[in-house]
């Protein structure tokens, strides 16, 4: 086997492993990332000399911006552990340029997404049904686990719907099972923030499908999903969590109680907003955020429950308090660049005859889904405060981009712009 083919196989295997093992194993997303990093280092003399597409440079710039932002947290107060997050962002860069040279096949990515969604449901069923846990949490926390399980389920659903005619009956059944099990994993985690993110994600995906394919019946499918969501809300575990949220919101409004899950988020959001307004340009910094919280609690200006967590339970407000408008701007770049480079333009999804290529469209929609879902998850959780949130995004974005370029090159189309 030639080196070119061997490195290409490693890229495809990594495309399977990153989403495929994400919820099956402890730090499952890291196994594929490690394989890609080792392959990138071994093949550096090859990809180093090859020009990368413009989209890869834009993605690199977005990753570097966030790495620089996290570098501001490095200091004696946090020790060497403060380097962990920015180092991961920097290590993703050689993997990106490796993938743009040795591009993975999309089929490996589709298989990994489906297997990962199945893992979300099966691990959740084992933890709640066999181990007797009250909430499925996989090998991370319940919120991260449930949200990633739901994200993989939606990705599987997009792949199933967009490429429906391509799949044989068995493949359709397996993808449908992946969707169902991914949703099961989310339900068993009882993570309400993921369900809220669907309100943002599903209408946008449906609109993009109608816009690119012209098939308005997709709106009927969206309506069916809304009906299914309403029916799902009657499941005892889901209904109980929704009732709890309503009760906690009411108690907070009446008494200002910040000890509940909803109440704690509300007091965190209020405090983060106030702290951000006090230092709107550069924020308080990570250490300063915690010190100022302690001071305000001691002075009776904030509820004591805010001391339990080091973040504000909202991605934007957390960065606004810690890094001011600069941090919020860099976060928008981090999400906005993938949205721009994956947006399904004609140059990215149509073949030489002007006909929509469903695999290219699937890759664009999965790419758009990544930042959109993270924006939705970030409404009630600081997703990037966790290793799972960072690693999945850092490696899925380059994998989807490389697979899209591989598909376009195999079709004889110009590079996507």
Describe the global form. globular
What proportion of the residues is helical, as a percent range? over 70%
Quote the distance from N terminus to C terminus. Answer: 33 Å
The main pleated sheet reads as: none
Count of individual helical segments: 17
The overall average pLDDT, rounded, is 86
Structural class: mainly alpha
Kindly state the number of beta strands.
0
Any idea what the radius of gyration is?
22 Å
Low-confidence stretches: none
Order of helices and strands: HHHHHHHHHHHHHHHHH
Q: How much beta, percentage-wise?
A: under 5%
**Domain module tally:** 2
Transmembrane segments: 31-48, 55-80, 109-130, 142-162, 169-188, 194-210, 217-237, 324-343, 363-384
Protein name: Polymerase
Subcellular location: Membrane
Pfam family, one: Wzy_C
Description:
The chain contains 17 helices and no strands. 73% of the residues lie in helices and 0% in strands. The two termini are 33 Å apart. The protein is mainly alpha-helical and 417 residues long. Helix 6 packs across helix 7 (142-162), helix 7 (142-162) runs antiparallel to helix 16 and helix 16 runs antiparallel to helix 17 (387-410).
